[in-house]
Amino acid sequence: MDKVNSLAIDLRQVSYRAGRSRILHDITLSIPHGSITALVGPSGSGKTTLVRLIAGLLQPSVGCIAVLGHGSPDPATASRIGYMAQSDALYNELSGQQNLDFFAGLYGLSGKSRVQRLEQLMQWVGLSEDRKKAVWTYSGGMRRRLSLAIALLPEPDLLILDEPTVGIDPVLSRQFWQEFEHFRTLGRTLLITTHVMDEANHADRVGFLRDGRMLATGSPQDLREQTGAASLEEAFLTLGGR
């Protein structure tokens, strides 16, 4: 397998402007198949814009993006990508079950496999007992769990999760990360944004973002050794010049 085909995500000098504001500056990032990459940075650092570009929801102002071997956006890869946005895109008047069933239809799931998939996901995210409740009654954490279930519906090759554990209790957060690591063993690729350094330690690779610039990428251990830091947080502060 050549270098290009071994990559799930390949960004080359990507920049993004919104009006007169430059949100991202010359981002280069390569992510191999079957790995977990965490993008870490404070609010406003450009994490959400970057994952929206990778998901094909935005187009770069400058640079090239390849996802699963295709230029992005590309309809050929859309069904192979699961995307969980930072803001939950749910139908509040429908129940959790109805929301999941609606999106299952969009993904083309049908018959017995559809019923089994919905049951499996509801159990996994801990919403089986609340499946018939209207989403407007859900807590923030419950909404995040339902959004994650929707992203997992197509059993994607690439799973892009924007702050997936916000509002979720530590026990469920730990369960999520255990499942993320299981997905990796199945050969799937995960790209996760987070501002929680402890979570980033579970990733194979970490990308430090600040002010729309990629400060560094590497394994958690490499980044600590590179900066002589005892923790990822220290490494981030060192690389950011603070």
Description:
This protein has 242 residues and is α/β, with parallel strands linked by helices. It has a domain at 90-155. The chain is 36% helix and 26% strand. The protein is built from nine helices and ten strands. The protein has helices spanning 47-54, 75-78, 96-106, 111-124, 140-152, 170-185, 197-200, 220-227, 232-239; strands at 7-18, 21-32, 36-40, 62-67, 70-71, 81-84, 158-162, 189-194, 205-210, 213-218. It has a six-stranded mixed β-sheet with strand order 6-7-8-3-9-10, sandwiched between helices. Strand 1 and strand 2 form a beta hairpin. Helix 4 (111-124) packs antiparallel against helix 5 and helix 8 (220-227) crosses helix 9 (232-239). It is globular, with a radius of gyration of 18 Å. The mean pLDDT is 90.
Counting DSSP H or I runs of 4 or more residues, the number of helices is 9
Largest sheet: 6 strands, mixed
Rg (CA only)? 18 Å
Proportion of beta-strand residues:
25-35%
User: What is the straight-line distance between the termini?
Assistant: 41 Å
SSE order, one letter for each helix or strand: EEEHEEHEHHHEHEHEEHH
Helix content range of the residues, please? 25-40%
Structural category is alpha/beta
Whole-number mean pLDDT:
90
Shape: globular
Number of distinct beta strands: 10
Strand order of the largest sheet: 6-7-8-3-9-10
Oligomer: single chain
> Which spans have pLDDT < 50 for at least 5 consecutive residues?
none
